[in-house]
Amino acid sequence: MPKSQEEIVRLFFNYLSKSNYDEAKEFMERQRLVFLNNAWPKAMFDILCDFALAEKNYYDTNFEPSKNKMLERKEDENYLDFVYKTLYQDLEKLQTEVDDNYVIKLITTLLQFISVRLQFLELYDKLYEIGSLNSWINFSELSETVENIQNDLSNFSPIDQVLRIVRYELDCIQHLFKCHEHLGEWSYFDSLISLKESSDAFILWEKCYQNKEAWRFGSLFMSKSTLPPLLLWFKRFKHMTISKFMLYFYGILVRQSSLREVKNTSETKNLHFFTKMQQLKQK
């Protein structure tokens, strides 16, 4: 029985919300051959297939500075920026050619979503440059940038399913930035709360990728990791933030727990914090 266009869109974005990007693309390719040929122009199917691939490549990009992969990373960044901007232009053009109200609504929401994605790419590019230069980081400014993205992110029905993952991403990075901001003020409780909220968001975000598609690049594929490079970067950033928190409030943590517990936590998270503190004390 032919599916309605609303049902097809719902199923497509349901695949994306579960991080099944290849399945989403294959599903839309099947629909292009069977359904909606009269209701939708061929370009709409092509755009949605390319959108699914762009979303997968977005999470597959490594935003961490590396001298050996500087050129590769820059090519990935330029590619993604080009793809999303091309999709945006194609959607704008298609918007003037269709008269179906539902398709027009879908195009409008996709344009808004892609605009948010482009802001994300700009943010990660800024973080990459900061990391490459090893310069001082203004976390207040970064937090403000994330807040601006959040303000542009609303319920884009009919694609609000996939926004769940985007919100996890925003919440995770926003609270990490806030934690560093509070650490700069030596605020123990505010830092702890931000760290907890970031960890909660990351746990929910990580669950979206459990037992999902294998990811493409080198060591990740060899290690059979189910997490894309972007989440692995977030995981390292979170652990680095925990390490900094433990450094700032080492005395409080030891008094509230024990030296052994602090050491075990450090070793469990592979932070090497305790060893570095011992080495510093010996010096």
UniProtKB/TrEMBL annotation:
Pfam families: C12orf66_like. InterPro entries: C12orf66-like_central_sf, KICS_2. Gene3D superfamilies: 1.10.3450.30. SUPFAM superfamilies: FLJ32549 domain-like (SSF158548). GO terms for biological process: cellular response to amino acid starvation; cellular response to glucose starvation; negative regulation of TORC1 signaling; protein localization to lysosome. This is UPF0536 protein.
